[in-house]
Amino acid sequence: MIGKTLCSRSRPGSERLPLMLLAVLGALLTVGCRQDMHDQPKIEPYEVNNFFADGMGSRIPPAGTIARGWLREDSALWEGKDAAGELVDTLPMALDQALLERGQQRFEIYCSVCHGSTGDGQGMIVRRGFKQPSPLYEQRLQEMPVGYFFDVMTNGFGLMSSYAKQVPVQDRWAIAAYIRALQLSQNAALAELPSPIQDEFHAALTAAESEGDGVHHDDAAAEHH
Ligand code: HEC
Fold this sequence. Notes:
By secondary structure, this protein is mainly alpha-helical. Among the domains are: 75-185, Cytochrome Bc1 Complex, Chain D, domain 2, CATH 1.10.760; 190-215. 53% of the residues lie in helices and 0% in strands. The chain has nine helices and no strands. The protein has helices at 2-32, 75-79, 97-110, 112-115, 124-127, 139-142, 146-155, 169-185, 195-224. The longest helix has 31 residues, at 2-32. Residues 1-8 and 217-225 have low confidence and may be disordered. Bound molecules: heme C (HEC). The site of heme C has 21 residues, from helix 4 and helix 7.
């Protein structure tokens, strides 16, 4: 009686055993097949792929594709040229004191070593033997549209290399504006200047003249001895 009971109890258990084993095996298999996100079925760069006629996995972007953040629609700003490809003659941003001061500072850092602080072309590198550029305030360059200076900085000119890597676009325009200021500074008529500056000039001139007289008298006195 007891034996029968045991036996009858053990029977359903032994039937379930293979099922349980299958479940465990199944679970193990599932774990073994786990696919991480970094290991997806995808085409790696430069991988062969026969889906495409050229056998390459990488696709060439369609013509005119622009990387995000690289849309440079404003050709005046980025190239110094209008839609027709002509150099622009106006700044593509507002001209104010801050822009000119920035331009002066950048010019002193990047350009004055060759072009000189006034743009005369007598910078230290030139005095040490590098080719002397034309004065930035000469007539020919005064008549150039402002986009020309942006273009020279962007693409280089003859022996001068491009400064596009060192000087960002906004700063290139600031320098171009400052070159205009240099051109004015070397060609301004006294009557065009604000009256306090005219007065200052006259005072300095009078002082220099009387000093000059002093020197002259001394020379004359020396000659008499
Ligand atoms: C290493 C020296 C050097 C530096 C620095 C330099 N330049 Fe020049 N630049 C030259 C020389 C030399 C020429 C003339 C090149 C030639 O004729 O082959 C020239 C030519 C130019 C011209 C063209 C002038 C023309 O005759 O049409 C402009 C404009 C100019 N430079 C602006 C700049 C500006 C703006 C900077 C600063 C961002 C700068 N340069 C920095 C040496 C330099």
